[in-house]
């Protein structure tokens, strides 16, 4: 007897729903091996992580604090991935969002202070969009591979932010602290509970809007067509180059907005540590959510929980917080391995085939 | 003259890890598998090499373990993209995300208790330069012949890789699988098996590149030891046009940027350090754009293996 893969007549939606859930369980199991091998108690670690992230109100608000930028960057990455444009530059677009917003907050003091927040957030979206637009134009115009350009631009963005907060933008009264001076208090994005802020509403609206655009408009249909079959889409008269640039502007604006809300609601300044890695977690989120904007929200909360749980085990057990990153990294393996079963089913062949 | 020799020597030292990893990725991509996990694999093998050297003092063992770690991670990618026909871009990314996360975690767990279990800041046995007699005393040439054993070995490894790929039957098989898996399969070549083998071979070479980072070029472990080198390697494969011998130029170019960076930083220039550190990433983007435009003009010499990044199954029509 041997096992063979048989193609299904149509994609199984049930498999697509269950695979992410099973993957989560498998990644916990694999993570337990890593924990045990490095001399930590897996069960105790997981309990501390879960309790830290979801076990208390204050823990849950911290999870939301992380889920907000993760939702926005997750949305940004997934809309680009829908075109099969591998934008792995959400981290850099996030940082540029933070830079753009900080620029308005610190230097546009000719504006009435009530206008700083909306204009600041808008500027963050614009700078994020520009940063994503550059590799999009290089791809649409010359065919330059986007995985590398978007990735390289992350490093450039991080170094540029570093130049700003160590150099010309450094707070003169900050005692050498690597950061800008704080934004005017009246322009901060208000908080709802704990550190969780109104970015939550912004992220939810963004998810709903994106869902509407993707599933209920002609543009959404065009994006889907390009992702499924570029050649067929071109034959149908869809302008692919224009769509790549437009979609990436939206993608970058979403990640930029994530960076913008982060600096206006949490740090209240541009400072060292702005490269928080949300843009990379966003890749995992997008894929887990199978590029569905509504699913992105839920996955982002789980991922936020894993990150908060990681911080928690560092405080409570002295384990490195990067265990959270290990678990997130592990998530994609069973997910990628399992996706095949939506298109194929496993079948046992009993008798030997006659050649 | 002295300055040129020194700069050249530093260039070669910095380029060594890039060259090993680029050779590895060339082998993998030639078989049709795109592995974007290089950054994660380099990071993990750099950590593995350093920790083995730290605890055993054996450089040979350290290098072997680094190769095994590189191969092990690349086999996950092989399983996902060949057997499970997963999207190769996302699979490679998952290797990078997992590898960098795990290296960060283990780097803070595997160290001695006296250092809070942290490996950063520890020192371990590392490669020292070997001066080749006679050749090592000639100006300019001295740069090539006062290097550690891993750099010196490249004088054999690179030509061997080129000969293997273009002058042997096995090399022809490898290229056939990457160019046209259907025809290769019809000729009786086990496509999946060949792809597994060269993904693993690629992983071993990437592992060597990682080992040289922590045991040769900048001895010691730190969490951002690779600093995007794994991604630069992916670009260097394109720069080399998937040819082992041309990979040398890319490694020298980027090694040279590193060398000049250090030189300028040490000399104290008016250019802020942040901008100096951007150089490799900006150059990568420029190189990529130029190569893409060149590849369009001269199809063949600079174009990728035709089946790169696609999965292959006999039953698919």
What does this structure look like?
The complex is a heterodimer of chains A (355) and B (317). Chain A is mainly alpha-helical. Chain A has a single domain (2-343), classed as ABC transporter involved in vitamin B12 uptake, BtuC (Orthogonal Bundle), CATH 1.10.3470. Chain A has helices at 13-37, 42-54, 57-82, 90-107, 113-142, 146-166, 199-216, 218-228, 230-235, 240-267, 278-288, 293-317, 323-338, 340-343; strands spanning 2-7, 191-193, 196-197, 344-349. In chain A, helix 5 runs antiparallel to helix 6 and helix 7 (199-216) packs across helix 8. Chain B is mainly alpha-helical. Chain B has a two-stranded antiparallel sheet with strand order 1-2. Chain B starts with a helix and ends in a 20-residue tail after the last helix. Classes of the chains: A mainly alpha (355), B mainly alpha (317). At the A-B interface, helix 6, helix 11 and helix 13 of A face helix 3, helix 4, helix 10 and helix 12 of B.
Spell out the blueprint of helices and strands.
The complex is a heterodimer of chains A (355) and B (317).
Chain A: E1 2-7, H1 13-37, H2 42-54, H3 57-82, H4 90-107, H5 113-142, H6 146-166, E2 191-193, E3 196-197, H7 199-216, H8 218-228, H9 230-235, H10 240-267, H11 278-288, H12 293-317, H13 323-338, H14 340-343, E4 344-349
Antiparallel strand pairs in A: 1-4, 2-3
Helix pairs in contact in A: 1-13, 2-3, 2-12, 3-7, 3-10, 3-11, 3-12, 4-5, 4-6, 4-10, 4-11, 5-6, 5-10, 7-8, 7-12, 11-12, 11-13, 12-13
Chain B: H1 2-30, H2 38-56, H3 59-83, H4 88-107, E1 130-131, H5 141-145, E2 146-147, H6 149-167, H7 169-179, H8 181-186, H9 191-217, H10 229-239, H11 247-267, H12 273-297
Antiparallel strand pairs in B: 1-2
